């Protein structure tokens, strides 16, 4: 008897969709149970949290697609119950602006804010088709020549819950750090998708920009690199299939660094750009 | 009788400092009169407004230097009275996070929000001296070989109030658009300072990142390019003297573009990085 062929999960009916869905308790107040499944070394992944906040804002604002979304990470989120408070700052014809906070409760039942987000939303399908992009897609070998957690020297996400949910294949040129030979260039490149085959949408792009190992590893730094602030611009609705993510750091100074990510879809379209400011905590 | 030699204005005692100073009316509530002097074609400059909001947050938070500041521009500010509401989101040891809104009043006396800001502040002087920056300062000819409003073909700011307050000298390689010959590269480079000789500080860097003509001009687009969202990272306290600002656009698509700015000080240090998402409104 042959194994049943599993069909890829559909957008709207996948683990990612279920785990990022918020339930509206009252206008501007949403409940969510942060899933253990998106943790790495006990910490809930920042991109997953961004998708949760992004969906709560999409439910709140008259427009459904994040165009520009900025998050300040205030304290570490834990798996379990959380609430998202949302506010409409401005509802315009083409764009709407909103604000959101992710909150959890400490042992004494006090609210602790985890993340605050400020974002402008629009309708990606309403944009004209003009493209005059001088940026070029990153040169990444085909996925079969890239490194995933299985049978690779890369410990990224190994045996971590999130690893089961991601399809992450690192460019061999940016995995030297795992063998003690970082390139020193501050680059990280990978193919990225959901493990269950769900295609990308604007919310999974929020996950894509913060799912690779830190570029600091490629600079020979092995400590924790917590994100202070992350801004994503979603520029187009992604075509089906995995995306390519290229991240670079140009300025490591004073204990902080920026990480710039570009996300390219299967049609060679630059679908998202992000920049984060992160702190380098030496191990 | 010879003309009196005017000494350069000092940080803290210059037109920029006076025009961005907010007065605290109550905790979290600040008054300001937005100066006519920082307008261009009737609109108050976005970078000047950022400096106003940035100073109100510095007065509110336990830390005084903007590390990462994001602004969403909601409606056009007009010269005249405005209020800035500020809120401390989180006060930490190394970093504090705050939020601010700039508000004005319409004819019926209703509050209209102009800009909302989310920012994290720290202490630039407390940072270690390590610098491992792979970015290179832009190659700009000396100021004497660059173009200012006086006697140049560039109409930027000509006879506009803000032009009297800025020292802006554009790289000849990025002024072709003013002669009908845009390079098509989406670049803009300039020397930038205050006209009264005031040296830079973190707040004038907020002005620096949004003071050059739009890169869209260098792409052959002449319409208005309003900023939707702008994020600035201030990475070091700038040394005395004018800074060099280099702005590039890599992705013009769907009627939107990003503008990435780097600001370099006289000691060849990358003191600020910014990215904005702007909309292209065809003229």
Automatic annotation (TrEMBL), chains A, B:
This is Thioesterase family protein. Signal peptide: none annotated. Residues 153-280 form the Acyl-CoA thioesterase-like C-terminal domain. InterPro entries: ACOT8-like_C, Acyl-CoA_hotdog, HotDog_dom_sf, Sec_Metab_Biosynth-Assoc, TesB_ACOT8-like_N. Residues 35-120 form the Acyl-CoA thioesterase-like N-terminal HotDog domain. It comes from Streptomyces lasalocidi. It comes from the Bacteria. Coiled coil: none annotated.
């Amino acid at each position: 008897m042959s194994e049943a062929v599993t069909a890829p999960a559909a957008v709207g009916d996948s683990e990612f969709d279920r785990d990022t869905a918020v339930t509206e308790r009252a206008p501007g107040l949403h409940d969510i149970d942060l899933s253990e499944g998106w943790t790495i070394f006990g910490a809930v992944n920042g991109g997953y949290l961004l998708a949760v906040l992004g969906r709560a804002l999409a439910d709140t604002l008259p427009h459904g697609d994040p165009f520009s979304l900025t998050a300040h990470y205030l304290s570490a989120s834990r798996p379990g119950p959380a609430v998202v408070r949302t506010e409409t700052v401005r509802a315009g014809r083409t764009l709407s602006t909103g604000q959101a906070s992710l909150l959890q409760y400490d042992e004494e039942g006090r609210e602790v804010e985890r993340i605050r987000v400020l974002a402008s939303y629009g309708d990606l399908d309403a944009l004209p088709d003009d493209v005059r992009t001088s940026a070029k897609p990153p040169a990444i070998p085909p996925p079969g020549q890239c490194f995933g957690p299985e049978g690779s020297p890369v410990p990224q996400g190994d045996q971590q819950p999130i690893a089961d949910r991601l399809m992450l294949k690192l460019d061999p040129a940016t995995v030297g750090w795992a063998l003690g030979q970082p390139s020193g260039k501050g680059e990280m490149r990978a193919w990225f998708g959901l493990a269950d085959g769900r295609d990308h949408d604007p919310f999974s792009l929020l996950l894509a920009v913060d799912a690779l190992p830190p570029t600091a590893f490629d600079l020979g730094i092995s400590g924790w690199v917590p994100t202070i602030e992350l801004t994503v611009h979603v520029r187009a609705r992604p075509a089906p299939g995995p995306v390519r993510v290229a991240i670079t750091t140009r300025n490591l100074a004073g204990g902080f660094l920026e990480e710039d990510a570009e996300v390219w879809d299967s049609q060679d379209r630059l679908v998202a750009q992000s920049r984060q400011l992160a702190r380098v905590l030496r191990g």
